[in-house]
Amino acid sequence: MSTTAAEPLSATTLLRFATAGSVDDGKSTLVGRLLHDSKSVLVDQLEAVEHASRSRGQEAPDLALLTDGLRAEREQGITIDVAYRYFATPRRRFILADTPGHVQYTRNMVTGASTAELTVILVDARNGVVEQTRRHAAIAALLRVPHVVLAVNKMDLVGYEEAVFARIAEDFTAYATELGVPEVTAIPISALAGDNVVEPSATMDWYGGPTVLEHLETVPASHDLTGCHARLPVQYVIRPQTPEHPDYRGYAGQIAAGTFRVGQEITVLPSGRTSRISGIDLLGEPVDVAWTPQSVTLLLEDDIDVSRGDLVVPTGDAPATSQDVEATVCHVADRPLTVGQRVLLKHTTRTVKAIVKEIPSRLTLDDLSQHPEPGRLVANDIGTVRVRTAEPLALDAYADSRRTGSFLLIDPADGTTLAAGMAGESFASEKATVTADDDGWDF
Amino acid sequence: MTTTVTHVHGDTHSPFALSHLDSLESEAVHIFREVAGEFERPVVLFSGGKDSIVMLHLALKAFWPAPVPFSLLHVDTGHNFPEVIEYRDRTVEKHGLRLHVASVQDYIDRGVLRERPDGTRNPLQTVPLTEAIQQHRFDAVFGGGRRDEEKARAKERVFSLRDEFSQWDPRRQRPELWQLYNGRHAPGEHVRVFPLSNWTELDVWQYIEREGIELPEIYFAHEREVFSRSGMWLTAGEWGGPKESEPVEKRMIRYRTVGDMSCTGAVDSDATTLQAVIAEITASRLTERGATRADDKLSEAAMEDRKREGYF
């Protein structure tokens, strides 16, 4: 629980963001500082941290203990798993996916980034952009996180020098732009001293931009949807068959992208049948128009066959349906993914049988080099795959829709989630997919 | 150094911005519908506490105008507040729901469970809960747990796979990507589902206010006979308190959480309305559990340990 006393109770918006940083970049300190300085840490939580810090022989309260929730994490002093944190300011509510920085936990960074609208990437001002920074930038680009913040930390250890910050920000922005990251905001901070995290720095008057929190409060969280392809995956068919509603037949789902209106002509995929929207119920209230991410129920003029797993789209704006999927996947399971393996593919509300036909390449995030035909992917690998599905799927490119362009590969034997998939081109910038022989990166 | 940030106070300008309550509501409804679409025998854990009341409200909206396609399960510790049991039964009746009750008292009477020396029955719920799940072959069990409640819960997935012993293994959780919840499980296993994962205590209260949801009276300030134990006000009653050394006094109090009488502490309060409760929580410098739950104070990893055993 986390609020300031002055918080108005009017409607605020929600921003989901993720943090990424190497082990010693001070990520836990930054998160602790954000929570602490925004008055989101309450007395009993702080007391628990102080008590635990003392019993470990530490003098100052270790803010990392606020975020390491598991016994094993506290024992080892590292973050193993994604944790979700909640805090609020008068302007906005935040859901923070606090992800571990270890390279072996790439899958956790992918998990955190998958729902994030913004990623904070931390670097140590003394080290600048390092391999791990490039990995984090590549994941943010791959997952198409709309906003990236570069937090140049430990400015106190480089004399708060503008030139140091400027060089790192330039290095990073150049690299991120090549990956196709649409927007980078660089902020010089000291998480330990509190410079530019919540309060503006008193020592870096050369910096005129926002603090980290200010930026989080003002970055646009919703986008103009008018140009988006509207998509509604059907989750559930609502048929009350009660005396009051004998003929009600509604198609319930969360709008994955764009907007739907009453009167609109729609097509149901994969069948291709068409009808017109006769009504939209927004959790019991009829509305004329609804948009992502609202959960709604669509009523159609015609009694056509629609069931869970179908995709409702505007007529004339349908993705191609296909049984051959080409995608980038991040392998998240401990057992490998191999060519010829039979899997289940979960796309929106539809789960179909599938077979891994090819693994054309494995990507090395450090330098973005492609290794052809690796034969298999192991935990934390990112690679391209070709998958053949038993039934046609209406898959968008992930670049067009994070929601209808993503899927899971699942082991049919025990239900293990094997891989996270993103259909279509890996990076927004074509230039980014060239091999390591390209110059411009110094390793 | 120039940065590419553009300062748009964008949300208020976008006609498509959703309020945080609308976003959370939409996400929770999506979760309810996913479970309805993918599972055979789901059940909603219903204690008559505010989180489970909000869960039921969301389920009613998710399937409107059809009835909720799940039954309810209450783990009755035998030390529940009478007002809460009354609320529970009235709610079940009002919405034509089916209620299963797993009774801790039955287990104690049969000699299967033994009363703890400290008298708290909250940890004793795990066995009746897991046995009820096995007996009724429930494959999805909705809980009102929120990640903001406790640091082990902050690590919990929305869809949390449990083995045939209902155990949670925090190191072997499935990554949860996008909104693609993987509910596959082997026979005997089940999935705990937490639609309120991303809600905070204040979100819950603001939603209750917005939706005009009725709550049991003990959430609002009232005069009650209480006694002090381990720094908390506990309701005096036949469950095992007070001891002779614990004098009873009448105080103006309310409850922030509702477990059973043996482990749920009250807070001093004069908040008799929803608005007053919200103002009080907003100003509070204590977390909900820190203020009122004895069982979380047993050790630094109390919740993690109980969850590993099958607690929700």
From TrEMBL, chain A:
One of its GO terms (biological process) is sulfur compound metabolic process. Keywords: ATP-binding, GTP-binding, Nucleotide-binding, Nucleotidyltransferase, Transferase. Its EC number is 2.7.7.4. It is an enzyme of class 2 (transferase). GO terms for molecular function: ATP binding; GTP binding; GTPase activity; sulfate adenylyltransferase (ATP) activity. This is sulfate adenylyltransferase. Residues 12-226 form the Tr-type G domain. Gene3D superfamilies: P-loop containing nucleotide triphosphate hydrolases, Translation factors.
From TrEMBL, chain B:
The keyword Transferase applies. Pfam families: PAPS_reduct. Pathway: Sulfur metabolism; hydrogen sulfide biosynthesis; sulfite from sulfate: step 1/3. Keywords: ATP-binding, Nucleotide-binding, Nucleotidyltransferase, Transferase. It is an enzyme of class 2 (transferase). GO terms for biological process: hydrogen sulfide biosynthetic process; sulfate assimilation. It comes from the Bacteria. This is Sulfate adenylyltransferase subunit 2.
